[in-house]
Specification:
The chain has 442 residues and is α/β, with parallel strands linked by helices. The chain folds into 2 domains: 237 residues, Type I PLP-dependent aspartate aminotransferase-like (Major domain) (Aspartate Aminotransferase, domain 2), CATH 3.40.640; 153 residues, Alpha-Beta Complex (Aspartate Aminotransferase, domain 1), CATH 3.90.1150.10. The strands form 4 sheets. It has a 7-stranded mixed beta sheet with strand order 4-10-9-8-7-5-6, sandwiched between helices. It has a 4-stranded antiparallel beta sheet with strand order 11-12-15-14. Strands 1-13 form a two-stranded parallel sheet. Helix 7 packs parallel to helix 8, helix 13 runs parallel beside helix 16 and helix 14 runs parallel beside helix 17. The longest helix has 23 residues. The protein has 18 helices and 15 strands. The protein is 47% helix and 13% strand. The radius of gyration is 22 Å and the shape is globular. The protein binds pyridoxal-5'-phosphate (PLP).
C-alpha cells in the first residue's frame, strides 16, 4: 500500500488516526449525537479553504483574497435559507455551544432572564444550566422540566414564564424521545414577549425531511449543529425566520454582530464548505430515506427492548433516540451498563433519568439510531443490536455501584477491566464486529 504524507511525517499521529478509524468501523455507535460525514463533506473540510482568513462577512471582509471564499460562504447561506425557507442564515458558528452563546449575546443583556429545559430533563447545558455554564452564569436562568408522563411540562413552562418574564425561551433537547410542540412554545413566548429560539441540533435531519414538525412557522430564531443528524462537519448554523423578522427587523444585524466580532474571529471556511455540501446532500431522496429509516430503526429498537423487559423513559420514542431506565435495578446502574456495552463494542452513553439523585452516576443509558442508519442498518439489524444489549444487561444483572462515594471510581475501573476480559462479553464483541463488517462506515 502507498504511504500517505501523514504516515511518513508523523507516524505516531497516523497510527492513532488509523486506530480510531478501525474502532469506528468495528464498533456500533448508538450515541444519538454522532454520525458519519460523507467523503464529500470530509473532502471539503480537508481542502485548501482551511488556509484562508476571512474575518467579516461576504463582501465586507477584513482581509484581501476572499473573492472565492465569499462565494463558498454565500453558497452555504443560500442553501440553508432555501432548505428551511427562511430569510436569513449565519453559517459561521464554530459549534452548537458557541452558537447558543452568540444568540444569547445578541438577544438579551447579561443579567437578564432566560429560560430553557433543564439538563436533567433532556435539555442542553447551554440552555441555562446553573453555575458552570455561560448561560447560567451571565444570565438569570430559569429551568423547566418534564411532567410525570416524561413529556415536556408545558404548563410549568407557561407558569414559570409568567412568573419570571424571560427575554429568551430556548427550546430544544439532547436526550428526549418525543415530538416538540413549537406552537405551544410560541404561545408561551408571546404571552410574555420573549423571543422563541428553537434549538434543533439533534433533530435537524428529521425536521428537514418533515419527519418532525418544523419550528420555522413558530420560532423567531433557529439554531442547529451541523454534525448530528445532518451529517455535516462539526459546526452550527443560526437562522432567523419571517416570524423573527416581524418581531425584530434587526435580528440579522444583531446575530451577525454577536457572532463576529462579538464572540468569534475568523470563520472556518473549510467547515462552512462542508456545511454547504451537507445541505445539498440533505435535499436528496437518499437523505429522505435515511431520515425515515432513522425513526423506523429507533422504533425497532423500542419494540425489541420493550418485549425483553427493558424500561424506557416515557415508554418509547417518536424520534431518533431512546433513554433506557435501569433505576429499578439500582441507582447508578446506567453507568455500569454503558461501560459493559462499550466492552462489547456497542458505544452509547450514560444518561440521567427522573429518579436519579446523583447526576455523575446516572441510572439510564441513551441510545440513538442516526449513525447505524447511515451505515445502512435496518430493522433486522436493530433486533440483533437490541438482543445484544439485553444479553449484556443480563450478564451484569447482579452488579451494583457501591454506596460509598470514594469506592465508586475504583469499582468502575475494576468493572471495566473485568468486562474487557469476560468471555461472554467477548462473544458479543465478535458478533458486533462481524455485523459491522457488513456495513462499512462511509
Ligand atoms: C449538541 C447540542 C448542542 C451543542 O453543540 P456542540 O457542537 O457540542 O457545542 C447545543 N444544543 C443541543 C440541543 C445539542 O444537542
Amino acid at each position: 500500500m502507498e504511504h500517505t504524507t501523514l504516515q511518513i511525517q508523523d507516524l505516531e499521529l497516523f497510527d492513532l488516526i488509523e486506530r480510531e478509524t478501525r474502532r469506528q468501523q468495528d464498533e456500533i455507535t448508538l450515541i444519538p449525537s454522532e454520525n458519519y460525514a460523507s467523503p464529500a463533506v470530509r473532502e471539503a473540510v480537508a481542502s485548501a479553504l482551511a488556509n484562508k482568513y476571512a474575518e467579516g462577512y461576504a463582501g465586507r471582509r477584513y482581509y484581501e483574497g476572499n473573492d472565492i471564499v465569499d462565494q463558498v460562504e454565500l453558497l452555504a447561506v443560500k442553501r440553508a435559507k432555501e432548505l428551511f425557507g427562511v430569510p436569513y442564515a449565519n453559517v459561521q458558528p464554530y459549534s452548537g455551544s458557541p452558537a447558543n452563546s452568540e444568540i444569547f449575546f445578541a438577544l438579551a443583556e447579561p443579567g437578564s432572564t432566560v429560560m430553557g429545559l433543564a439538563l436533567s430533563s433532556g435539555g442542553h447545558l447551554t440552555h441555562g444550566h446553573p453555575k458552570v455554564t455561560f448561560s447560567g452564569k451571565y444570565y438569570k436562568a430559569v429551568q423547566f422540566g418534564l411532567a410525570s408522563d416524561a413529556r415536556i411540562d408545558y404548563d410549568q413552562m407557561a407558569s414559570l414564564a409568567r412568573e419570571h418574564k424571560p427575554s429568551i425561551i430556548i427550546f430544544g433537547t439532547t436526550a428526549y424521545s418525543f415530538t416538540l410542540d413549537w406552537k405551544r412554545a410560541r404561545e408561551i413566548a408571546d404571552e410574555v414577549g420573549a423571543y422563541l429560539v428553537a434549538d434543533i441540533s439533534h433533530i435537524i435531519g428529521l425536521v428537514i425531511t418533515g419527519d418532525h414538525p418544523s419550528p420555522v412557522p413558530y420560532a423567531h430564531v433557529i439554531m442547529s449543529t451541523t454534525h448530528k443528524t445532518l451529517r455535516g462537519p462539526r459546526g452550527a448554523i443560526i437562522l432567523v425566520t419571517e416570524e423573527g423578522l416581524q418581531k425584530d427587523g434587526d435580528l440579522p444585524k444583531k446575530i451577525d454582530a454577536a457572532v463576529m466580532p462579538g464572540m468569534q474571529g475568523g470563520p472556518h471556511e473549510n467547515a462552512i464548505a462542508g456545511i454547504a455540501t451537507s445541505l445539498l446532500e440533505a435535499t436528496t431522496d437518499e437523505f429522505k430515506q435515511y431520515s425515515r429509516q432513522v425513526i423506523l430503526n429507533a422504533k425497532a429498537l423500542e419494540s425489541e427492548l420493550r418485549a425483553k423487559g427493558i424500561e424506557l423513559i416515557g415508554g418509547g420514542t417518536e424520534n431518533h433516540l431512546l433513554v433506557l431506565d435501569f433505576s429499578k435495578q439500582s441507582l447508578g446502574k446506567g453507568t455500569l451498563v454503558a461501560a459493559a456495552l462499550n466492552a462489547a463494542g456497542i458505544v452509547a452513553n450514560r444518561n440521567t433519568v427522573p429518579s436519579d439523585t446523583n447526576p455523575f452516576y446516572p441510572s439510564g443509558v441513551r441510545v440513538g439510531t442516526p449513525a447505524v442508519t447511515t451505515r445502512g442498518m435496518k430493522e433486522h439489524e436493530m433486533q440483533k443490536v437490541a438482543g445484544w444489549i439485553v444479553e449484556v444487561v443480563e450478564i451484569i444483572k447482579d452488579e451494583k455501584l457501591p454506596e460509598a462515594k470514594e469506592q465508586k471510581q475504583s469499582y468502575i475501573a475494576e468493572f471495566r477491566a473485568r468486562m474487557q476480559n469476560d468471555p461472554r462479553i467477548h462473544i458479543i464483541r465478535n458478533l458486533v464486529k462481524d455485523l459491522c463488517a457488513q456495513y462499512p462506515t462511509p
